[in-house]
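Journal club prep, notes for RB
We'll compare a predicted complex against what the paper describes. Inputs for the flavin-adenine dinucleotide case:
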Amino acid sequence: MVNADLLVVGSGFFGLTIAERAANELGLKVLVIDRRSHIGGNAYSAAEPETGIEVHQYGAHLFHTSNRAVWDYVNRFTAFTGYQHRVFTNFSGEVYPLPINLGTINQFFRSAYSPDEARALIAEQASEYTTKDAANLEEKGISLIGRPLYEAFIRDYTAKQWQTDPTRLPGEVISRLPVRYNYNSRYFNDDFEGLPVDGYTAWLERMADHPNIEVMLDTDFFDASHGASQASAVGSVPIVYTGAIDRYFDYAEGELSWRTLDFEQEVLNVGDFQGTAVMNYADAAVPYTRIHEFRHFHPERDWYPSDKTVIMREFSRFATRDDEPYYPVNTGEDRAGLLKYRELEEGEPNVFFGGRLGTYQYLDMHMAIGSALSMFNNKLVPLFSTAR
Ligand code: FAD
Ligand code: UDP
């Protein structure tokens, strides 16, 4: 038995947004369970003990959005620094700015093209495919930037990151990476960007800080030994479920493919290892995809040591059932499987599937928060107003 009005499975941004809204707006008692021993899902961060440098434990998290409602909402819980994300990539022993911009193009072709000259060159190199008709990531990449740049910066990095041939991946994966014919090297195009001044965990804790919200950690929804498990709770209380959708149905329609990441963290006795927050490694021969150096996310923090730094190498591979599923791979078979799971969801009228894992979608934080706000307004508010 769950002693609450609403059970939320998963304390990531999706689950916490639902919990916060339900407690504050509807006065509901909310029980949030998470199988991990901390709240916050993949956005969780903690100070590395030796240096005090804030480390994003599940890979670097950069907050950005153009959604004004989401920006206003998140600003209730935290202030943001003026951090603007920039990324570089090491290809064949040379470092280039990303996303691909005029600087990248001119460095790569050892030229001084104007924007129009670069556009004309890339249009010619990209003429093999049209973006509109591109059937997969490779065709889309070539249609956007031409084959030489695609093969240098995208092909092998993508194959390393997704462990899937780019011809089997959807083109949308790289729609996230703009191409620019000027020297603007900001990673994101969004209107609002920054990092939480006091760190991610302080922000996440403030969302959960309400007398009506109880958080139970180390509690797996599929462990039948407690009252908030799938076996006990389904049918007795409305549930917002943000775990993996295939797991919910015990893989009845097969496993959807996910990528997971392995991180190798190191404290180094240098003040600055790479001079920037994120360095990608485009070459197939380098086993990791990128190195994060966390001090660079918070240049304003004067308490960080000047003689030590924390770096994290990121490796990507397919997830097994025992791994944390991070990224939906989204091949054609996956999309067909997802449709079958969506049909099964219809047999669970009191369970609301949300978040990255629950909808099998590549969601950024602002998208997870935005879709939680929509679910709250469009589904939970009507549900609880008729129930009363
Ligand atoms: P999650 O954060 O994954 O939370 C789901 C929670 O459910 C987890 O805590 C999990 O333990 C819990 N759970 C799962 N199964 C069960 C179960 N059976 N029982 C109990 N609990 C369960 N977004 C950005 O905006 N910018 C970025 O730079 C960025 N970088 C990212 C980098 C990486 C490596 C990853 C993986 C994601 C990144 N994201 C980024 C996306 C961001 O992490 C997500 O948008 C956000 O975390 C989504 O929140 P969520 O609540 O849907 O999922
Ligand atoms: N990508 C690439 N080369 C890079 C960076 C990104 O090919 O140096 C491609 C890759 O397919 C990746 C996608 O662009 O999956 C999106 O990149 P992003 O850095 O936004 O992904 P994330 O941070 O979510 O891993």
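Talking point for the session: The chain has a mean pLDDT of 95.
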